[in-house]
Amino acid sequence: MMLKNPAEKYRPFDLGVDMSDRTWPSKSITVAPRWLSTDLRDGNQALADPMDVEKKMRFWNKLMEVGLKEVEVGFPSASQIEFDFVRKLIEGGHIPDDVAVQVLVQSREDLIARTFESLKGAKQAIVHLYNATSPLFRRVVFGLEKADVIALAVKGATAIMAEAAKQPETKWMFEYSPETFSATELDFAVEVCERVMDVFQATPENPVILNLPATVEVSMPNLYADQIEYFCRKLSRRDSAIISIHPHNDRGTGIAAAEMSLLAGADRIEGCLFGNGERTGNVDLVTLALNLYTQGITPNLDFSDIRSVVRTVEYCNAIPVHPRHPYAGELVFTAFSGSHQDAIRKGFAAHEQRNDGLWEMPYLPIDPADLGESYEAVIRVNSQSGKGGIAWILEHDKGLKLPRRFQVDFSRKVQEIADATGKEMHAEDIWHAFEGAYHLNGEQKYELLEYADSGILRTGGERLFAGRIRHDGVEVPVNGRGNGLISSAVNALNDSYGLGLEVVDFHEHALYKGTDAMAVAYVECKTPDDRKVFGVGIDSDTATASVKAILSAANAL
Ligand SMILES: CC(=O)SCCNC(=O)CCNC(=O)[C@H](O)C(C)(C)COP(=O)(O)OP(=O)(O)OC[C@H]1O[C@@H](n2cnc3c(N)ncnc32)[C@H](O)[C@@H]1OP(=O)(O)O
Ligand SMILES: CC(C)C(=O)C(=O)O
C-alpha cells in the first residue's frame, strides 16, 4: 500500500555540493557527441533470453549500417556465447578499421585475463573496467571502506595494463566507470577516477574514457547535469579524459539527463537503440540522435531506414518497440483527430507552395520521409476525424480533390459510419463509403444509359439534352433544354420527374490513373425545400462525367 507520508520511507536526493554557480543551463548543443551502443552488453544482459551469436551478429550488422563507431559487444568473461561472439567478430574480419569494440569487465584478475584472451588479434579495442562506488554499495554489496574501493579500482586497472602490455599489436583504449556514480559523493568519484587515470597513464594524446553512469536514475535530470559539470570542473586533468555518460531511465528522464549532461560538459554517450536495457532501460540513442537532427545538427548516425532498424531490434531483443516511441513507433507520424489532420493538410500544401526545403509542419517535428517512412500513415480516419483528413485520404489514395462543401457532406457520412462501428476506417473503407454515398456503383434509381450532346439543336442560344436513362429499372428517354450541358441535363430530369433540382456549384478536374486520364465532376444542387444534395461523376469523357454527377445528385435525393 502506498504510504500517506512517503517521507517515512524515501529520502530526497541530495547533491551534496553547492552548484549555485552552474553554467550549463545557458549553453546549447551544437555538435553530436561520440556515441557508444551498449545494446550487445547492457541491453543484452537485461533480456530474459540473452542473444545468441546469430542474433548478436545481426544486431552488430545493423549497428554498422547505422554508423556506430564504438560498440560495447559484451562481457566476454561472463559466458561462452559472449566470448565466442568477440572471437567471431575478430576472426571473421567483421570489425571495420574505424570501429572500436568495447568489452566490460569487473575488477577481478581472472575475469580480466579471460577478457584479454577474447580480444586477441583485435586492431583496436576499449577495455571497460567498473566497480560500484556509492555509499550504499560500499556498505551493502562490498562491505568496503572508501580506501578499499579505490584499491579495488586500482587493482583492476593495474591488471588491465599488465594484460594490455602482453598484446602490443592492439591499439588499446581504457574506460573506467565508477558504477552508481549518480549516487556517489562527487568528490569521492573524482578521487577514484583520478587514481585510475594514473594507472592508465592518461594523457591528452591517450585520454582515458571516464564513464559516469546514472546506474540508477535517482534525481531530476538537472541534478545529473550538475553532477557532470561539477565532476568536469574538479577533475585535475580534464584534457586527459573523455567524459562519457551512461544514463538509465528509472525516473523516465534518461533523454533529458543525457541532453543536459552534454550541456554540462559530457563528450560521449552510452545507450541502446530504442532504450532497451536494465529495468526501464538505458538512454535511447535513436531519440537522442534524432532530437539533434531536428535541431539541424548532424547526428553522425543514419536512420534513413528506421523501420528496418526497428525490425532488427525487435527480433534480436524479442521486445516490441512501443507504437508511441519517439520517431520510431508506428503511430508517431499519425493524426486521427480532425484539427490535427486539417493543420497537417494545410502544412503540406504550404510546404509544396513555399518549395524552400524547410520543414515547418504542424504536429510533425520531423519529415517521415527522412526516416524512410511514407506519408500514408500520417492521416488515419476514425470518429475523431474531420473533413480535412478524409479529403486527404481520398486525394492521396484516389486522386479526388473534393470541393470544400462536398468535403463537409461526405465527412458527415463517414462520421456516421465511424461512430456506428467505433473502428478506424481505412482508405478502402472510405472509398466504399464514397461509392455508396454518391451511388457510383450498385443499383441506381436514375442510371445514365446514353445521351447526345453533339449535333446539339441551338434555338435562341439554348442547348438540347437528349438522353436515355434507366429509371427504377425501366429505360426511358429524357429531354431538356438549358444554356449549357449541365443545365440542360438537370432540366431533362426535372421535367421528367419533377425533381426541382437547381445546380448551385460545379467543379471538375482531371484524374490520372496510371497512364489513363479520367475526369471527375462534382455538383452541388439545391432542392425545392432548400436541402443540399451532392453528386459526383467519373468518366473518361469530361462531359459524361458532368452528366453522371447530375444523376448522382438525383440519386442522393
Ligand atoms: C551496472 C551493470 O550493468 S554492471 C554489469 C553487470 N553485468 C553482469 O553482471 C553480466 C555478466 N555477469 C556475470 O556473468 C557474472 O556476474 C560474473 C561472471 C561477472 C561473475 O559471476 P560470479 O563470480 O558468479 O559472481 P556474482 O555475479 O554472483 O557476484 C558478484 C561478486 O562480484 C563482486 N563484484 C561485483 N562487481 C564487482 C566489480 N566491479 N569488481 C570486482 N568485484 C565485483 C561482488 O561483490 C560479488 O562478490 P562476492 O561473491 O565476494 O560477494
Ligand atoms: C557498467 C556500468 C557502466 C553500467 O552499466 C551502469 O552503471 O549502468
Automatic annotation (TrEMBL):
NCBIfam families: leuA_yeast, PRK03739.1
Functional note: Catalyzes the condensation of the acetyl group of acetyl-CoA with 3-methyl-2-oxobutanoate (2-ketoisovalerate) to form 3-carboxy-3-hydroxy-4-methylpentanoate (2-isopropylmalate).
Residue spans crossing the bilayer: none
Reactions this protein catalyses: 3-methyl-2-oxobutanoate + acetyl-CoA + H2O = (2S)-2-isopropylmalate + CoA + H(+)
Location of region: Regulatory domain: 441-557
Assembly notes: Homodimer.
First-level EC class: transferase
Name listed for the protein in its UniProt record: 2-isopropylmalate synthase
Gene designation: leuA
Chain ranges of the Pyruvate carboxyltransferase domain: 33-307
HAMAP family registered for this protein in UniProt: LeuA_type2 (MF_00572)
GO molecular function ontology, one term from the record: 2-isopropylmalate synthase activity
Domain of life: Bacteria
Location of this chain's protein in the cell: Cytoplasm
Pathway: Amino-acid biosynthesis; L-leucine biosynthesis; L-leucine from 3-methyl-2-oxobutanoate: step 1/4
Residues that, per the record, bind Mg(2+): D42, H246, H248, N282
Cofactor entry: Mg(2+)
Keyword Transferase: yes
Protein keywords: Acyltransferase, Amino-acid biosynthesis, Branched-chain amino acid biosynthesis, Cytoplasm, Leucine biosynthesis, Magnesium, Metal-binding, Transferase
InterPro entries: 2-isopropylmalate_synth_dimer (IPR013709), AIPM/Hcit_synth_CS (IPR002034), Aldolase_TIM (IPR013785), IPM_Synthase (IPR005668), LeuA-like_post-cat (IPR054692), LeuA_allosteric_dom_sf (IPR036230), LeuA_N_DRE-TIM (IPR039371), PYR_CT (IPR000891)
Protein family membership: Belongs to the alpha-IPM synthase/homocitrate synthase family. LeuA type 2 subfamily.
UniProt keyword Cytoplasm present: yes
EC annotation from Swiss-Prot or TrEMBL: 2.3.3.13
Entry-linked PROSITE patterns: AIPM_HOMOCIT_SYNTH_1, AIPM_HOMOCIT_SYNTH_2, PYR_CT
SUPFAM superfamilies linked: 2-isopropylmalate synthase LeuA, allosteric (dimerisation) domain, Aldolase, post-HMGL domain-like
